[in-house]
């Protein structure tokens, strides 16, 4: 019987040799060492599947994947990308380029074989599935592949399985490294909840985790595996159980626990077994991708947030202040809304630095930033303008409301006891300006007016709020 051709493309000879040693008994191996060879060999040999390293000289794996998926001769060939565990951004780019799957190095061979087999299943495998089953699998694959929230994927899976198979309960159980088991989603949950499991009472789950294989119990009353818990299985509304491990690349991340309501003589049919296995495969891939996208998105959002924050106070920085002020000014002018700006400057701050040192001065700035966050409303935009100057943008706020906010900031700073200052009080001089009824032509004018009021406050003895009327 002819074996499927497997194209392995990696610039590291040692890695290719390791994969060949583990896979040559199952597949006819073809080798390549860069992206250009990947494209040429795929066109020449038409392999059943391609293992493609991302990081290679000349043409990398992402570029090669994009070319292969845009060529009518090779676009249907499944591609599994191989990537460094730490380079998540490349994994995302590879998936966007059309890759069907990915695994991280060092590769866990049993997991790799499982993923290859999942992509290479022949049409014979689906022969005893009904048309509605195939439509169901297509629908669930499309839906969960578009979801980036892992919990929503799990909930959708148990809901959909319950629709197509007569089950008493369908659950997804997560098991951590310590062996703690938690039901993450179940068809009988009415709300989004979690339920801890004592695995001593579930020998079928323990066996599935141990062997990393599907476990089938066709009759819960007679199967020897359930003998230790026989007293607890009597009188249950279901008669058979199937436990399918959801393998996330190199480890089992959980089990798809499906309990059917069929009679003992029916047990777990081939149809049920295959549906559950296919869904476990789909789930593993979708969950891995969802977790990946989630982590990359979180990291991206974190770095984007850092870029617009002041490192000392964690308020918005000077650049973001101007970006938001321009946005709010344009919105206020378009919808004829008031917009106010409060500027304030710490009085005699140079003396603080000279007397106590810059580290103490930095602590003062940090504490004022915290006070400003507490005074600011949710819609307000607080920023460190630079040095000892601060600003707060007040959308949809007129003169009276802006004066109130400025005075609350003034009082909060004056009454605050600053650490390391030997009971010395800090005061501020604040200036307030308001755009209303098109009384100015630009946001720069608003800044100039508020800044001018700070100097008015300074001229009148500091420690006060002045407002442009």
How many independent structural domains? 3
Beta-strand proportion: 15-25%
The CATH architecture of the largest domain would be: 2-Layer Sandwich
Overall pLDDT score: 84
In the CATH hierarchy, what is the superfamily of the largest domain? GAF domain
Low-confidence stretches: 249-253
What does this structure look like?
The chain is an alpha/beta fold and 469 residues long. The protein folds into three domains: 1-119, Response regulator (Rossmann fold, 3-Layer(aba) Sandwich), CATH 3.40.50; 121-301, 2-Layer Sandwich (Beta-Lactamase); 318-467, 2-Layer Sandwich (Alpha-Beta Plaits), CATH 3.30.70. The protein is 45% helix and 21% strand. It contains 15 helices and 16 strands. It has helices at 13-23, 35-45, 61-69, 88-96, 109-120, 131-145, 150-164, 203-211, 230-233, 270-307, 318-335, 349-356, 358-375, 399-415, 443-459; strands spanning 5-9, 28-32, 49-53, 79-84, 101-105, 167-175, 181-186, 195-197, 215-217, 240-248, 251-260, 339-346, 381-386, 389-395, 428-435, 464-467. The strands form three sheets. A six-stranded antiparallel sheet has the order 8-7-6-11-10-9, sandwiched between helices. It has a five-stranded parallel sheet with strand order 2-1-3-4-5, with helices on both faces. β10 and β11 form a beta hairpin. The longest helix is centred in the middle third of the chain and has 38 residues, at 270-307. Mean pLDDT is 84; it is low at 249-253.
């Amino acid at each position: 019987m002819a074996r499927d051709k497997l194209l392995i493309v990696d610039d590291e000879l040692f890695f290719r040799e390791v994969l060949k040693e583990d896979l040559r008994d199952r597949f006819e191996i073809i080798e390549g060492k860069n992206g250009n060879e990947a494209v040429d060999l795929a066109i020449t040999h038409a392999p059943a599947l391609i293992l493609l390293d991302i990081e290679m000289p000349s043409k990398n794996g992402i570029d090669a994947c994009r070319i292969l998926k845009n060529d009518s001769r090779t676009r249907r060939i499944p591609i599994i990308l191989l990537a460094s565990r730490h380079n998540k951004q490349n994994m995302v780019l590879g998936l966007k380029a059309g890759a069907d799957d990915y695994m991280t190095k060092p590769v866990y061979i049993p997991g790799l074989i499982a993923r290859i087999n999942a992509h290479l299943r022949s049409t014979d495998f689906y022969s005893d599935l009904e048309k509605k089953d195939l439509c169901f699998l297509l629908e669930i694959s499309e839906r969960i592949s578009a979801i980036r929230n892992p919990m929503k994927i799990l909930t959708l899976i148990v809901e959909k399985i319950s629709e197509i198979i007569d089950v008493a309960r369908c659950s997804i159980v997560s098991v951590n490294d310590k062996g703690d088991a938690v039901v993450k989603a179940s068809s009988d949950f009415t709300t989004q909840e979690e339920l801890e499991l004592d695995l001593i009472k579930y020998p079928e789950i323990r066996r599935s985790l141990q062997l990393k294989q599907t476990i089938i119990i066709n009759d819960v009353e007679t199967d020897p595996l359930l003998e230790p818990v026989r007293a607890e299985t009597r009188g249950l509304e279901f008669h058979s159980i199937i436990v399918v491990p959801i393998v996330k690349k190199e480890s089992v991340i959980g089990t798809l626990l499906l309990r059917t309501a069929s009679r003992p003589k029916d047990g777990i049919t081939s149809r049920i077994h295959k549906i559950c296995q296919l869904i476990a495969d789909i789930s593993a891939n979708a969950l891995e991708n969802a977790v990946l996208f989630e982590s990359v998105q979180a990291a991206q959002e974190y770095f984007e947030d850092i870029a617009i924050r002041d490192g000392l106070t964690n308020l918005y920085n000077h650049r973001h202040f101007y970006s938001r002020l321009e946005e709010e000014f344009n919105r206020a002018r378009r919808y004829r809304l008031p917009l106010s700006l409060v500027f304030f400057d710490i009085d005699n701050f140079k003396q603080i630095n000279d007397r106590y040192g810059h580290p103490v001065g930095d602590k003062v700035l940090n504490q004022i930033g915290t006070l400003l966050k507490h005074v600011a409303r949710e819609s307000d935009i607080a920023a460190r303008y630079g040095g000892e100057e601060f600003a707060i943008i007040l959308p949809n706020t007129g003169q009276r409301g802006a004066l109130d906010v400025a005075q609350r900031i003034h009082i909060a700073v004056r009454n605050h006891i600053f650490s390391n200052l030997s009971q010395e009080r800090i005061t501020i001089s604040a200036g307030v300006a308001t755009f209303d009824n098109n009384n100015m032509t630009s946001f720069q004018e608003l800044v100039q007016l508020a800044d001018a009021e700070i100097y008015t406050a300074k001229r009148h003895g500091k420690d006060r709020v002045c407002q442009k009327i």
